[in-house]
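Problem statement: downstream parser choked on a complex file, so we are re-checking the raw output for the zinc ion run. The parser issue turned out to be on our end (a line-ending mismatch), but while we're here, posting the original submission so the record is complete.
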Amino acid sequence: MNPSTPVERIEEKRARLRDHASRIRAQLERMEVACPGTLTVRTKSCGKSTCRCSTDPKARHGPYFEWTRYEDGKLIHRVISREQARLVADGIEAWRKIEELMVVWHARTADLVAAMKRHK
Ligand SMILES: [Zn+2]
């Protein structure tokens, strides 16, 4: 049989979970945008042999900003402007931070639930 988790340990876990939840709220408070995906910056050659881009790498066209993400299970690529790309970059950073916080939140919640189960 599993030894039961002492009540103090459960209270400790609960307190850690409350701290974590308040850190999440504080971080969300500062976030304006959040989005999944990746942002790619690339330059292109137009394919015309008379264009400088065909011989000079510095003359390639662009930069082009591309936002890639899954939507309804489908991979979506979208070319966006530099201004949109700034917003998307902030959104992706926020999204990753939120995901990290969720992983820890989940783990601590599952840990608390498991500790409580043995403590009817
Ligand atoms: Zn060209």
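For whoever reads this later: The radius of gyration is 24 Å.
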